[in-house]
Design a protein that fits this description.
single chain
Length: 176
């Protein structure tokens, strides 16, 4: 595997089942990654070291997951110029809305890109798109991926239309 390009940071191992989706997206495009647990609240020194040293370590993008108070992505973004993507994690009782609001409401000057609640796969894709700005080969693979998504929609549409036609032949689906 080449030099690590994406850092994935979680405040707790309870985020791991969701964040595995991020690694699946990155793996699909051959993007190297590392994963660490570092809490902005319970171990702020480690978080600061990681964020401040990320660029020197060769990272290009950081993806940070956070539930509840959701400070991890913002704290990391405040300590590096690398792009930071926040993944709000759904936890009770607010099911991730609190995390989403905390990440998306960053103050002016310290941006954090934000994906949907538990949207770790999309965070991985967004990281790939950022990296593709300087990698035409990766850009072509992302384009092929998008074409595959479109082809799957067409397949489903075709199957739906065939099913509708069959239903109409048997008198089903007539709502008149």
């Amino acid at each position: 595997m080449s030099e690590v390009q994406v850092g994935i940071v979680m405040g707790s191992d309870s985020d791991l089942p969701i964040m595995r989706k991020c690694t699946e997206a990155l793996d699909e495009f051959g993007i190297s990654w590392e994963m660490v647990i570092s809490s902005a609240h319970r171990h702020p020194e480690k978080t600061a070291r990681y964020a401040r040293g990320a660029e020197d370590a060769g990272l290009k993008v950081i993806i940070a997951a956070a539930g509840g108070a959701a400070h991890l992505p913002g704290v990391i973004a405040s300590m590096t110029l690398l792009p930071v993507i926040g993944v709000p994690i759904a936890i009770e009782p607010l099911r991730g809305v609190d995390s989403l609001y905390s990440i998306v409401q960053m103050p002016q000057g310290i941006p954090v890109a934000t994906v949907t609640i538990n949207g770790a796969f999309n965070a991985g894709l967004l990281a790939a798109q950022i990296l593709a700005l300087g990698d035409n080969n990766l850009r072509q693979r992302l384009n092929s991926y998008r074409q595959l998504l479109a082809a799957k929609v067409e397949e489903k549409d075709c199957a739906l239309r065939e099913n509708e036609a069959q239903c109409k032949r048997f008198g089903e689906g007539d709502q008149n």
